[in-house]
Write a structure and sequence with these properties.
5-stranded parallel sheet; alpha/beta; 2 domains; 11 strands; Rossmann fold
Length: about 325
């Protein structure tokens, strides 16, 4: 493969006839670098290997070992940015119509080719591929911004839950919650492609957050009933009970979480996912501890886990502290 082929958008042409491959490459090489393959299997391999460079895929239909529409279907599923063109010397309208109806091909061109018409089709296909890439990049940038917005809003929601549901504005429960999420290797949520519209995403997040808040309040009320003497070690026992095998107690004043991802669920799962009752208990436990002047000091545990140890503390959160935490995600 030449250096130009590696750098510029390329056309992948697949045909089992060596003469056709040479003819196509000679006739269309001025438009873009041409990569050739002599079978469906080779075409699939080259497409997967150079998908970031292939802009247009042109495939013959009848080949030993497979049909061109099968290769185009593979490209449609794995590499949707590639513009797909089917060409054949045979009248096989059944397969062609099926591929068109399923959106698997952009154009159907019958052999023998009108070279000028083929050049025009390929110019248009290369331009379409360029526009698709630009659109995908813009959409990706938009989603990254939306991703940051979602994470920021969720961090704010955690603080708001502490202030409204738990009746406190203590910094430590929120800091502990966010420390645990970072220690768990939080992956910011990727917005659902079906919720790209801002109003839809906002609505989904609002319902999700409200349900989570209600579950946190229910757990907090249950803790108040079960721990009237305000003994923080009893909360640690309840954590082990709630998280089951994924949580173990460290002496009298600590716990070890073997599945750290369970501590970041509200912050990192998609908008359409319901937050588990177990995770709602986790935040409720931190709020209960904060209400009674206690917190968990988060640190790395054995075997990739996350551990928390009881400590007494009472500190108020400032807007600057919250903003600093937002910047860390």
């Amino acid at each position: 493969m030449t250096e130009a082929t590696q750098q510029n958008p390329a056309i992948l042409y697949v045909d089992d006839e060596p003469t056709a491959l040479k003819y196509f490459q000679r006739a269309m090489g001025a438009l873009a670098p041409v990569i050739t393959a002599a079978s469906v299997e080779e075409g699939r391999r080259l497409l997967d290997a150079y998908a970031d460079r292939v802009a247009v895929l042109v495939s013959d239909q009848r080949m030993p070992g497979g049909y061109g529409n099968e290769l185009l279907g593979h490209a449609w599923e794995r590499h949707p940015h590639v513009v797909r063109i089917l060409t054949t010397a045979y009248s096989e309208m059944e397969h062609t119509v099926e591929a068109v109806n399923q959106g698997r091909i952009h154009r159907y061109i019958q052999k023998p080719w009108d070279i000028e018409a083929l050049r025009m089709e390929l110019r248009q296909a290369l331009e379409l591929a360029r526009l698709r890439r630009e659109h995908a990049q813009l959409l990706r940038e938009k989603l990254l911004v939306r991703q940051k917005q979602v994470t920021t809003a969720r961090i704010g929601a955690v603080y708001a839950l502490g202030a409204t549901i738990a009746g406190q504005v203590s910094f430590l429960p929120v800091e502990t919650y966010l420390s645990a999420a970072l220690a768990a290797g939080l992956t910011p949520p990727e917005p659902d492609w079906l919720l790209i519209d801002h109003s839809d995403l906002t609505s989904s997040e609002a319902f999700r957050g409200a349900a989570f808040g209600l579950a946190v309040r229910e757990h907090l009320d249950a803790m108040a009933r079960r721990c009237p003497d305000a003994q923080p070690r009893r909360i640690l026992g309840m954590m082990v009970e709630t998280f089951g095998d994924s949580c173990g107690q460290l002496g009298d004043n600590g716990v070890l979480f073997h599945k750290p991802s369970e501590l970041a669920e509200f912050l990192e799962t998609p908008s359409g996912d319901v937050v588990s009752s177990q995770h709602a208990f986790w935040l409720a436990a931190l709020l209960w501890l904060g209400r009674h002047g206690w917190s968990l000091r988060i640190s790395a545990g054995e075997g990739g886990g996350v551990q928390g140890r009881l400590e007494q503390a009472d500190e108020m959160m400032t807007p600057a502290q919250l903003a600093a935490w937002v910047e860390r995600f």
